Amino acid sequence: MIKRRIQASIETSLKKYPVVGIIGSRQAGKTTLAKMIQRRVSKKVIYLDLELPSDLNKLHDPELYLVQFTDSLVIIDEIQRMPSLFPLIRALVDKKRTGGRFLLLGSASPGLIKHSSESLAGRIIYHELSPFSIHETGHKNFQQLWLRGGYPLSYLAESAEDSFAWRDAFIKTYLEMDIPQLGIRVPAAQLRRFWTMLAHSHGHLWNASQIAGSLGVSAPTVRSYLDILEETFVVTRLQPYFANIKKRLVKSPKVYVRDSGILHSLLRIGEIDDLMGNPSLGRSWEGFVIEQIIGLLPDGWSHFFYRTGAGAEIDLLLIDKKNRLIAVEIKYSASPRAERGFWNALEDLSCRKAFIVYPGEETYPSGKNTIILSVKELNRIIE
Length: 383
Prior knowledge:
Blueprint: H1 7-16, E1 19-23, H2 30-38, E2 45-49, H3 53-58, H4 62-66, E3 73-77, H5 85-95, E4 102-106, H6 116-119, E5 124-128, H7 134-137, H8 142-148, H9 152-155, H10 160-181, H11 188-200, H12 208-215, H13 219-231, E6 235-238, E7 254-257, H14 260-266, H15 272-276, H16 281-296, E8 302-307, E9 313-319, E10 325-330, H17 340-349, E11 353-358, E12 364-367, E13 370-374
Parallel strand pairs: 1-4, 1-5, 2-3, 3-4, 10-11, 11-13
Antiparallel strand pairs: 6-7, 8-9, 9-10, 12-13
């Protein structure tokens, strides 16, 4: 059993907040984590899985059923299947506002789960559970994590073939079952084509018109597709950083498929040798490292990329709680060297420190407050 980094934070929140939400994509491990937490809770625990007809039947009259558990922790899995519960949960919490009344698990963002933010404002805290990170699986296995991605059943599969087959099935189920269950009416084949296009433009600037032309739909339509994939935690938009400097700055976000294993499935990359020879190698590594770093960021930090029209560029720009800038360049090379655009960007922004992340074993200084950083020591970025 691989312990999740956010477990302690969730257990602390259950002592303070009446409602705690764990959100994240399907199959990221929310149910397993909730059951691990369940074993550590001192009070009685009621577990409802809204994908089970028997549990749905219990909620035929939800008020009559839930009102009896005022001193228990009620865990509701796949809450997005029954958003009508949120107003009732609010009413029950307001009658007895103590910590740890409800633990809600959802496979969509709070904004996509209808009425959740409005109904439980001030009563709920959300924690996002991502697939496994390098700090959970161990640094020795980072190449397997990069190839297969962090979904538990993909990462822990007995073989690369089994992992690839699981990811293919995940994509199919996500498109044909999970999305329709959220009330979203988009043809599965169309959304898969869009997702595959994103995989081929992984790490590039978002160009809605270009993708819309390739799909034969309007730019607003592809923007809605992107919203769907982002709000169900399978892609992310990295926003550009706007500085008050006399430079012409790029304004479009960069789009990444969040899980490297899903990216590789969409690109039909099944083995590490296939990845090493693929033109997407560098972009895949970049997205993988960015996702690992973002998962480490403390509360109050923010993240962007930086690019000017003149070619100055930083792959990942972090801003800490004191508004200090930290630059991160990402290279898949045994002897990484940043290009002139990176050094120009450091001068533009006067970054406090900078890192060049690579897959090697050693970490060493490289001048100009810059460190060549092994992927195994990513935590040094936030120290």
